[in-house]
Structures are given as structure tokens and as C-alpha cells.
Amino acid sequence: xxxxxxxxxxVQIFGIGVNAFSALCTVLAALITAGFxxxxxxxxxxxxAPTVTVTVTSGRSQPSSAPPVNxxxxxxxxxxxxxxxxxxxxxxxxxxxxxDQTYNSDDLGYLRDGIQDNLLSASQLATLGSxxxxxxxxxxxxxxxxxxxQVSTNQVVCFTGHGVIAAITIKKVVDGPTYxxxxxxxxxxxx
Length: 191
Prior knowledge:
The protein has 191 residues and is mostly beta strands. The protein has 2 domains: 12-45; 74-189, no CATH class. Helix content is 12%, strand content 34%. It has helices at residues 18-33, 135-140; strands at residues 12-13, 16-17, 74-84, 87-89, 108-112, 117-127, 145-148, 156-161, 164-174, 180-189.
């Protein structure tokens, strides 16, 4: 007999088919998850919470967290800093930075390529021809390059970028099982 078996009967929930009920539950769950109903239902007679705004003023301005730094002021300095081949550093305020293995995208990187020792930069480097490695000497030396090839002991290289100027003195180039350079670095605030 067709139509009398339990499998032939259509199941309905709340007067709608199973597929329609399933789709309705899915839409309702999505609306609840998205927060659609948040704040839309309130209890009868409830009042919204009051909003309180507090404004405090004073006749004095608040000091900034850091004092302004004058152009040409030393903001970082470190000596006898060892920079290994394949590593780079960021030049900024404070003491010696932590080297990382992004030598070709840092402010200053060192790479021994098997033949020569090279300093690399993501910004501007210039070899200081003569004079004391100071702020003005580095500021005026504008023969910029991204790589200084065949660095040597007592050579001074200037860095210019992201609001700082730095003088890097190469104190020693160490060849051996580990290639590295020993540097003295002074960083100034640029204009």
C-alpha cells in the first residue's frame, strides 16, 4: 500500500517541512552569532542606563612623555660592537642594538662574500673621506650608496636615514672561521 508506510509520511515541525525548518534554524543561528538581536529586546518597563560624561580641564598643559631632541644631539652611542657577517642592526636611540639576520634590509648590515668585506644598508651610506667623524661631517658627505665595498680598519662610514645620522668607525675586520667587524657607532638626531 503506497502512502501508508512511515517512510512515506512527510515529517513537519511547527507546520513546516524538515528542510524549511533546518534553513530557518541556520538563518536564526547566523543572526544570533552576528549579534543582530543584541540590544533589540528589553524587558517591559526597563529604562536605559544613564550616560555619564566627565571632562577634566586644567590651566596647565601636560608634559610630553619624552623631551624634544635637538638636531645634532647624540641619541645613541656604542663602542667595540661586533657585527657578524650576514647580520644587520637598526641605528636609533639608546645603546647597542640586537643584530638580526636581515642584513640587507636593516640600517647597517655586514656581509663577507668570500672575497671582500661589504657594508650594506637599506638607506644611505657614504664613506667619509677625511675629517673627524662628527655630525656635520656626516651631514655634508652626500656621496650616497647602498653598499660600501672592501671596508677596512679605521675607515669611517656615515649613515643617513629615518631621521638619524650616524658615524660608523670600522675598528677591526676579523677574518677567520667567523667573519665580523668591530665598530664604534655614534647616532645623532637629524633635522
